[in-house]
Design a protein that fits this description.
125 residues; mainly alpha; 3 helices
């Protein structure tokens, strides 16, 4: 019983540190251990309080983790959308450049341009 009391005292000190630094994972572990050790020591009411605190914190951490996962998934989807837009814009730009080169090539031989050594006709052709 003496060792159990020392363990409970040590866990209460750990709880203070965890609460002071908002260390949620440490609080979760401490609450669970305190519940278990207090129950072994015969303090079922306080053991039940710590068990309840442990469950509430676990639920909170699980919900936070799920929200974070959803946010990360939404962020990843947005990145993929932006990547697709960028790729589409790059393809479009390449097509425009190719068309520009074709027009430049055809422009060299246009009937409307005057070339050295070529005489203009009176009708404009």
């Amino acid at each position: 019983m003496e060792r159990l009391g020392a363990a409970i005292h040590t866990l209460r000190e750990a709880e203070k540190i965890a609460l002071g630094h908002d260390m949620k994972d440490c609080k979760l572990e401490t609450f669970g251990l305190l519940s278990s050790f207090l129950k072994r020591n015969g303090d079922t009411i306080e053991a039940e309080e710590y068990r309840e605190r442990c469950y509430l914190l676990r639920d909170t951490l699980t919900n936070n983790h799920q929200l974070t996962s959803v946010s990360e998934m939404e962020f990843t989807q947005e990145l993929h959308k932006m990547d697709r837009r960028i790729m589409d814009m790059q393809r479009h730009s390449r097509r425009l450049q190719a068309c520009g080169r074709k027009w430049s090539f055809f422009g060299l031989f246009s009937e409307d341009r005057e070339y050295p050594g070529r005489e203009s006709h009176p009708d404009g052709s």
